[in-house]
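Running this now, will post back.
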Amino acid sequence: KLSTFEVQSGNKAFKVQNADYILSADGKTLIAVAPSVEGEFTGASIGGADVSMIGKGAFSHNTKITTVTLPNVVEVGDYGFGSSKNVSSINLGTLNKIGEYAFFETAISTHPAITTETEMSKYAFSHSALTNVVIPDGVKIIGERAFFWCEKVTGVIIPESVTAIDYGAFLGCTKMKNMTIPASVTTIGEAAFMECRNLIVVV
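Update: finished.
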């Protein structure tokens, strides 16, 4: 199993300050974290680097990390935390981009702060432990299966800015009870609320 990283001297694309992770050369993107890293992962874990982006799959399938605190991060790439099943606390900056499967199968109960212009890609929070979802005013589209089988979600607040709820966006949110669809919504994809057995929708 992979446990450490090494970047040869002279490499101009990446850098390693210790063997547990890889950063982009400018220190802004966290490229990868070794699966052996456990417990809490913070800015101190990466030598105080001013990381603003979690790269594609950076924490993916790490089952030992429980908490991540990187307050300057504003973008999470595809599978950024995907299948990191024991991560229950993620403290980031206000996100303006959330990649596909970014928080898939994580144990987080609350989602990070989201800007009004956030791109929310498909499967972004699917199978996570979210309990409540608050989508900020300004977001226009709730992506395909964004909250797919989030079985602990009980409530969702959708603002007037949303115009589309894509295919299967809330499919399998079995504990969700109430949702108001604002007048701004003109498109609801197939199976958007399938298996939401306790849901009462007000349009």
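The chain has no helices and 17 strands. More later if anyone needs it.
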